Amino acid sequence: MGRFRDNKYNKPGLMLFVDEISHKHQQRRDEEDESDQYHYYQRPKQVRMESIETLVANIIGLSEGKTTQLHTLLKQSEDSIQNMASQLGQSLDQLDPEKHSLGYLFLLEAYLSTPAAKEQAELIPSVARFINSCVAEQIRLEPRKFTYICKTFTDVVVQRQVPIMGVAPLRIAVRKLQPSSEHLTALHSEFLLVCLLAKCYKTGYSILKDDIFEVDQPRNLFLYCYYGGMICIGQKQFRRAIQLLHNVVTAPMQSLNCITVEAYKKYILVNLIQNGQFSATFPKYASSAAQRSLKHFSQPYLDLATSYSTGKIAELESCVATHREKFESDTNLGLVNQVVTSLYKRNIQRLTQTYLTLSLQDIANTVQLNTPKEAEMRVLQMIEDGEIFATINQKDGMVSFLEDPEQYKSCEMIESIDTSIQRIMSLSKKLNSVHEVISCDPAYLGKAERHRNQRFEMDDFDNVPQRFNM
Amino acid sequence: MEGDDETTSVTMIDDEIYINGGGEEKRSKPNLSGELLDVEVYAGLYSGRTKVTRLMFIADRCGNQVMKLDALRMAYEEIKKGENTNLFKEVVEKIDGKLGSEYCLDQTWVDTVDRKAEVRKEKLESELNAYRTNLIKESIRMGYNDFGEFYYSHGHLGDAFKNYARTRDYCTTSKHILQMCLNAILVSIEMGQFTHVATYVSKAEQTPDALDPVAIAKLRCAAGLAHLESKKYKLAARKFLETGPELANTYTEVIAPQDVATYGGLCALASFDRAELKSKVIDNFNFRNFLELVPEVREIINDFYSSRYASCLEFLENLKANLLLDIHLHDHVETLYSQIRHKALIQYTHPFVSVDLRMMADAFKTDVSGLEKELEALITDNQIQARIDSHNKILYARHADQRNSTFKNVLQSGDEFDRDVKSMLLRANVLKFDTGGYHRHPHHRKF
């Protein structure tokens, strides 16, 4: 990671993104290599050297209801499109991105692969226009090309340091590419990255409300969950952030990767903020790679969790001071400071369990605040946030702690309980159907069979082993 | 709360407190050993090696020069009666000439004893060899036993244990087994190997023939000590409480009946609940005999049971210095004391809806802020269900609302289920790549 230190993208929090971008370039090159091979095999015997004009005419002609035919034709002439890539700029203007989405897609992809295109000033609005107006059915015929266009678009937006211009188009792009809201696309992470850079956490969070189940590439999932976790942290939605980061940490993986390590660090911190504790034992479904070496990379964070569990501010602060540099270089210092604040809150919350009334002075002493005034401000803040139930008597400097007024009797509560029940029921139905599908999946059965043969001596006839360990 | 209620509850507490703390002066106070331990009396309770080791332990721990030298002097005299030259040298070194020329290193005595030991060892060896060639089981057993005794009296505990254990193969009657076990237990206790003690106690109890009451009492004591050492205070208390009065002064090489009362009483206080305390300690006729030997402990238990915590804690405090000088109890005094104190606090608050902290502090002879801290710790530990009104210094009992907490728990587990299932489904989908069925993008697996 060190070699990116001097990179201009190295704003706080961006180190990993930069790493990722370089990753992406590598991968893109791989994909290109592959498509070359593809051309080699698919290349028709008689290479038709079409001119740009005939091509455009064909696109316009066939776009009306004959998209399948057009798709075949375009695939056959992919090579020649590539050859005239540099002159495609003007012909794009002749096409309507809405009516001729598929043709536009092919031409734009070829055009964007030329270095000159990336320098063009008008690039961002024109690609954004295409994304906004293209027809979902047509672009889904070539998801890889569409993904490539959007990724290039992201790169350009990031490079020109106007990430905010990418937010709206990419959001539309995600929705257009997704067959359903349960599908994860390669564009999810791009969109979240742009949101993070533009600090549009709220927009980013809107997409995180959907639950993702269908994943094509594990790598997309890792980035989606990691960026998503960061956006949730920005929105102070710590519960959701924990869930997303948990997915990264426990995801099946062959070997450890950078994203998981960074996610694990944040996972520890957010757990401390939200739950006040962190258990370093992994659930047994976590991959062995993660179980083996994650802790090794995040020792300062684990130390922090240990000192947090003592409940002593002084100890926590000395721990923060010891590892300050590490936290800072990981760009987690802000979160670490939130961890410290949360310990104050937690100590005050603990007092509500033991006291009915307590003077502000005593609160200040017990939770190691300097003045009763400071204690008052903290208590006030917590009452406002609904974290404790209490009243402050300023005359005597006393705080009276009350019980949780929620009696679970109101209509709203019953309604919310009802929605929870409905949600759980539908989830459980989904679980059953997935279970059925998996137990009929030949690939799974084959693997399970092999597994059982390997250890037949164990006399284990449960043919769905580790059903709940996934 | 209505004003009326409050006043009645406060007066009620007032009465109660008066009973708790105030009646103390009227009762006849037994003469307590708040002053320093009388080493001579103490030493008189024991015999054999334990007497020496206990005296030396006191000398090491008491921190009082007069007492220390007193203890060392008695240890010196006791060793002179035996044959343990190593221990003798150790004691002389500790005395360091401070008791005058009478208590210096008596080299001629050491030499004589050592020479005699050499001769005796050779004799025993030749005897044992003769027995072994004749293959007479009983004689071999006797031979090993003699060897065990020989090593024990000379302070070679490891060798003694080995020889005693060896007699096991030659035991023919239950009586022999019992003897072997008791010997092994004795040596193990001296060595501080309490796991051995526990195993040999169970071995002895498994002998087919009924044991005589004295032996049973001895085994109970040994088991109690083993449990005490492993911090299982409740089990230890049970064993000591089961010890029969037949023990009397038959086991002074290990334990005095006074110790049974002290160990048993304190462990019971720390670990039993009220009902158990009443049925197993106070109403226990056998144990009452032991308690009579140590009136302090008897008073502590009675005070505790009748909720006179102030005097109970006072007695305990007085006893503390001496208990710290006990070779078996010293490590456990602090734990037992804090457990007893916590139980007293919990028991005190239990019957009340509200408790005035000032009166409670009086009853426990402490100040309000200290009490508040103690209560806070107990509440945090969930041992007392109450909350403190720090402004008015009143403790209010708190009864958890079952309905609300059930709702809360149900909603929480619903959320957890939701979260777990979702991430499980997600993992299942990712795992499809590993099952080999979805190799549409093989190059992505490089990731």
UniProtKB/TrEMBL annotation, chain A:
InterPro entries: COP9_N (IPR055089), CSN3 (IPR050756), PCI_dom (IPR000717), WH_DNA-bd_sf (IPR036390). Keywords: Cytoplasm, Nucleus, Signalosome. GO terms for cellular component: COP9 signalosome; cytoplasm. The keyword Cytoplasm applies. This is COP9 signalosome complex subunit 3. The keyword Transferase does not apply. Belongs to the CSN3 family. GO terms for biological process: ubiquitin-dependent protein catabolic process. It is found in: Cytoplasm; Nucleus. The lineage of its organism: Eukaryota, Viridiplantae, Streptophyta, Embryophyta, Tracheophyta. Residues 237-406 form the PCI domain. Its main location: cytoplasm.
Automatic annotation (TrEMBL), chain B:
Its main location: cytoplasm. One of its GO terms (cellular component) is cytoplasm. It comes from the Eukaryota. Residues 114-141 form a coiled coil. It is found in: Cytoplasm; Nucleus. SUPFAM superfamilies: Winged helix' DNA-binding domain. The keyword Coiled coil applies. The keyword Amino-acid biosynthesis does not apply. Pfam families: CSN1_C, PCI, RPN7. PANTHER family: 26S PROTESOME SUBUNIT 6, COP9 SIGNALOSOME COMPLEX SUBUNIT 1. This is PCI domain-containing protein.
